Structures are given as C-alpha cells and as structure tokens.
Amino acid sequence: EVQLVESGGGLVQPGGSLRLSCAASGFTLSSHAMSWVRQAPGKGLEWISTISGNEGSTYYADSVKGRFTISRDSSKNVVYLQLKSLRAEDTARYYCAHLQSGLGYCTSTSCLYYFDNWGQGTLVTVSS
Amino acid sequence: DIVMTQSPDSLAVSLGERATINCKSSQSVLYSSNNKNYLAWYQQKPGQPPKLLIYWASTRASGVPDRFSGSGSGTDFTLTISSLQAEDVAVYYCQQYYSTPPLTFGGGTKVEIK
User: Which of B33, B50, B100 sits opposite A110 (nearest CB)?
Assistant: First the structure.
C-alpha cells in the first residue's frame, strides 16, 4: 500500500527558509515521479514542483522558481522541498503526491499525468 | 499555460439527485495521436487531502463508486454524480496534464446537500 507522510512545516518569518520532507512507503521513489502541491487557506490546489522518476528531472511553477528546490534521497525513500525567501503568499498546506508519469502516453510536451496518491499535508505559515 | 475553468463555483443538490460539474480548458486537451483526453477529476472532503476520482476524462480510479462518471472531450468536460449521497459533500477539482509543466487545476466546485 502506498503511503506518503509529510513533515517539516511550521511558522517561519518572511524571508526565512524551511525544508519539507515526504517519506514514502509501498514503492521505490527513484522509479516514480513525485510532486508537491499546495493549498492556501480556503483556496484551491496549486501544483508547485515535480521530480521525475529515473532521470530525476525537476520542474517548478513560476511562482516558486528560484526559491524552492525539490530533491530526493533514494536510500531513505524521501522527497524534500527546500523553501527559501519565503513570502506571506507561500502560506499554505503543502501536499506530497505521487504522480503517474512516463512513457506510453506522452504528448509532444509532457510525460506527466495525474496524482493518484496524496499525503495528509504539512502546514507552512509565513508571518512575522 | 492551459487555464482550467470550472462551473458552477458551488451547487446544492438534494440527496439522491444528480449533480453536474463542468470544466473547460483554454485549449484542447485531446491528444490526436492516441485519442485520449488528458484530464483528471479529484474530490476533496473537508479536512482531507484530495482523492483521485477520474483520469483520462472518463476512467474511474480504483474503488470509486460507479455513481461518479466523467465525460467530455477536447475543451469541455463534465463530472456527474448520478445519485448524490451525504458522503459526497466535498469540493471537486479538474486538472489537465496535456501540456506540462505546469500541471493546472480548475478553481474547484463545492457540492452541498440541499
């Protein structure tokens, strides 16, 4: 059974940093694409980053590019999201999600598909 | 980027009645090479993470009751709950994966009991 457990959220001042972790079980991370999706209080879902399986290519939303970094530790089966230069508008619950991806149904621009497993999320609050 | 627009923002339906949610993409998400629509639907109940309901526009995810169905093609899609149950109260989101990144979601539709 796939399980995703996020940790590392908390209260941080504007301009500060935080590292989120997502511990995966039930599958081998290095072969699967993983994403972070956030949800501001009372708002909708926003995809922010993906790390692909095997080659480990990384992708970011424009809103976080240059400030957030996704990575993984295959030996620990953990995905990370490093958050830097945090702003009030980064306040949200951050979900780790397994992303179906890969060869077989790629379009001319994408091999990233849908999110089939989600963690419970970890809350990040950016405030002074 | 492909923009996803859902309607209505909210709807109230009586128990046992049909609920219909619409999702429109700013460009087609139908890939002509394989005739697949790159669209998914999610359900998010209060205090819970989203849950995958439908992918490839009309394929139900494992364990999803058959009262949930997805339809549509190209730019216009519909999620239908054929007979609303109390446990279906939630916010529903569509998501495109035709042209990524970014993976984009609709703004959500809140379904309540009338």
Answer: B100
Contacts of A65 in chain B (CB under 8 A): none
Chain B residues 63-82 within an 8 A CB cutoff of chain A: none
Q: What is the pLDDT of residues A78-110, one digit of tens each?
A: 999 999 999 999 999 999 999 998 878 888 888
- What are the backbone angles phi and psi of residue B82, rounded to the nearest 5°? -70, -35
Gap between the Cα atoms of B42 and B62, Å rounded: 13
Whether A1 contacts chain B with CB within 8 A: no
Residue that is written with structure tokens 């995905």 in the block:
A79
Task: Indicate if the pLDDT at residue A55 is higher than 90.
Answer: no
pLDDT in tens, B42-92: 999 999 999 999 999 999 999 999 999 999 999 999 999 999 999 999 999
* pLDDT at position A91: 98
User: What are A125's two structure tokens?
Assistant: 């609050």
Answer yes or no: do B98 and A107 touch at CB < 8 A. Answer: yes
Give one DSSP letter per residue of B36-68, joined into a string. EE-EEEEEE-TTS--EEEEETTTEEPTT--TTE
Chain A residue with CA closest to B36: the answer is: A105
Residue A104 has which token pair?
A: 């077989």
Confidence (pLDDT) at B69: 98
Out of A44, A62, A115, the one facing B52 most closely (by C-beta) is A115
